[in-house]
Amino acid sequence: MNSDRPPYDASAGPPIALIVLDTLRADMLVRQDLLDSLPTMRGLFERSLLFTRAYAPSHWTLPSHASLFTGLSPSDHMAHPPHMRLRGDVPTIAELFRNRGYFTACITCNPWLSETFGMVRGFDIIWRPPFLSAAWRLHSAADRISGRYNGHNGFGRILGNLFKLLWAIIISSPATDNGARALTRGLRRLWRRSTSSPFLVINLMETHGPYHGRGGFSAWRKRIEHRGIFGRWERLKFAVLGGRLELTKGMQRDIDGIYWENVRYLDHHLGVLLRDLPKEFLDHGYVILASDHGQLLGEGGGIDHSAGLREELIHVPLAIRPPGGNGGLLVDRPVDITWLFRLLQAIALGEPRALSSWLEWLNQRDSVISQAHGGTVPYVDRLKGRDPHFRDDLLAFKLRHDHPALACIAGRWKIVCHLGRREDELYDLAEDPHEEVNLVSREENVLDDMHRQLKKRFLDLGGGPLRQLRGDGLPLEAKEAIAKIVLARSMDPERRPVLVWTGGKDSTLVLYLCIEVARQKGLTMPPLMFVDHGHHFQETWSFMEEIARREELRVVVARNESLVDAVKRGEDAVPLEELDGESQEEALKAGLEGRSVPLSLGTSVGNHLLKTVALKRGLNSHGFDTAITGIRWNENPARSDEVFFSPREEPPHTRVHPVLPWTEQEVWRYTLDHALPIHPLYKRGYRSFDGVHDSEPTDTRPAWEQDLDAGPERAGRSQDKEEIMERLRALGYF
Fold it and tell me: In a 10 Å sphere around its CB, with 0-12 CB exposed, 13-18 middle and 19+ buried, how is residue 32 labelled?
C-alpha cells in the first residue's frame, strides 16, 4: 500500500480508477482453472459486482475506448474507419470529471489513446513510458514532414519514412514488455502530484499481440514471438486472415499457451498496481476493471482481433469494486461496457445512489449491440514490393473482412447481421456458446424478432439511442467518405457495375461521386442506365444527353418496348393479351385486376411494368451484376430499412446504395458547394419529379431555397405511387 503521499481533497467526489486490460477475453468467468491461475483478478472479482455477460461495443481498441469515454456507439462517435477520430463536438467523461474538480490522468502504453485520434481530451495528464512518448513524437514529426498518409515530394517521403522506421523500431522493441512496470512507476509519481480526487484511466497492454516470451517455449512458439512492426506475429496473423495459412491444432495450442501466459503476467502487475493504491482510495473510491475487446486464438480459423464479432472478440470481463469492496454480486444479463459512461457520469455529478440507480437502469435494457466497421489495417496500400506474400495477405484480409456488421445479443440469442454482404448468423448462446451452428434457417420467429430489435435501434426514423447510424448525426464529410468507400467496392474490377441514373439530384450526386472515385482510384467508370418509361419530361432527356456528352459517358437505355410505344401513342391502357409473356406474368404478379393494363406511373401495375421490368431486362441483357442507385433512407419510409449492399435474385445482382444516410438538405448543400449540374426542373420549383403527368412544382422558388422541413420531399409527385411504394419495392423497384 502506498502511504508516502499526502491525503488528497476528496470534496469533489469519490476517487475512480477505470482499468482497461486491453485484449482480455472473458474465459476466466466460465473456466475455474483459468481463474485459479489469476489470483489478483479472482480476489478483485470476489469483492466486486461481476458482470458475467458484458460486451464490448466493437472488436478493437479505438471505437471501444471512444464508447467508454463518451457513452456513444461507434457509429455515433465516428472513431472507426474511415473517419478514425473521435468527433470534436462530443463531450468526454474526462472533461466532465475535470469540470467537477477532479484530477484526471490517462496512464497508458496504448498508441490509440493519443491526441492523434482525439482520445485524450479532458485529461490533466497523459502519462506514457518515455520510450512510447519518444515514439509518438517521431510519428508526429513524420506526419508533419511527409503529409498525412502520403508525401508531397520525394525528399519529404524519404525523410518521413525514416522517422516512421525509427517509430516502428521503438514500438517493436522488447522494451514494451516492461509497459506494466513502467505504468506502475508512473502511477506512483502521480500520487505525489494529485491534490484532489483522482479520475484515472489505466490501460495495460500485456495481453495484446505481438507477444513476448515469458519463459521457455517450443520452437514454434518462438516463431510467433514479436520481431518487428511487420514481424513474425504480423505475418502469421495476416497469412491466416488472408486465407493462405490454415492453423493446425498444434499451432492453436501454442497460441493459446502464449496468450494465457501473458495474461498471468498481466495479473501479477495488476496486483502490484492495486497494492499501490492508497488506502483512502480503496475505502472511498471505485475500481472498475474492464476489457475493450477479446482475442481470437484460433477459433473459427482466425487469430487476433482485426475483424469479426465472435463471442471471443466481444464478450469481455467487467467488474466494479464499490467503495470498501462490498461486492460479491453476479449480474448475469447482457451489459454493454459503453453503459459505464452513465454510471461514471452519475458519480461525477454527485448522485447519492449512483451505483444502485444504474443497476436499476440496467434491468430495463433488453439487448446489447456491437459493431464492426471494417478491417483495422490502414497501411495496406502503402506496402509496395517488400514482401509480396505479406502484401497479398493484407489485401486478401481487407477484401474478406473490411465491411460493416452488427451483432445483437438479447437473452440467449445472438444475431450477426452483415448488412447485405453475407448471410446473417443466428446462434443460441445457451446451447452453442462457441457459435458453431447457424440457426438462421431454423428459427425464423427468433430471427424476425432480432431484426426488429436491430431496426428499432438503428433504422427507426423516430430516433433511439443509435439514431446516428441512420442519418443526421454523421457529419457530411463522413457520409461522403462512406459513399466513396461503397462506390469503390461496387466498382471493383471483378464486378460488372452500372449506375442507374434518373437525372434527379440524388442520382446526379452519385454520378459525380462515382466519377471522382474512378479518377482517384484508377477504376473504370461504369456505364449509365437510363430507364425510359415513356413519361419523361423533354428536359430530362436533354439533361441526360448533355451530361453524357460532357463527361464522355456510355449510356444504356432500358425500356419495356411494347408498353413505351403505347405510351408514346397516347394510350392510357393496353389489353393484357397484347403484352409479351413475361410482361403478362409480371402484370398479374403486380396485382392486375381485369384484362386492361394501365400505363400510369401512379399504379402498381403500370409503374412495375414500365420501370422495374425494364430495369431487370436491362441488367439481364447487358450482363450487369451490380446496380448503383441514389436512393436515401429518409426520402420515403419504405426505403428506411435498406442497406448499402442489397443482393437481389431476379436477375441475380446486387443493388448498391452509397448515399443512404444523406438528407435532402445535405444533397443540395453538396451539389451547390461542388457546383454539380442541376436539372432545370429544380430551378422552376419542382422539389421532386418523375413523369410529365405525375409531377408538379411545390413552390415558385428553386428547390434548394424552399422550406425543406415543411412537408414531404416527394410531395410534388403522384401520391398514389408514394402510397404503394412498399408494394413496388417488394416487386423489385428501387
Answer: exposed
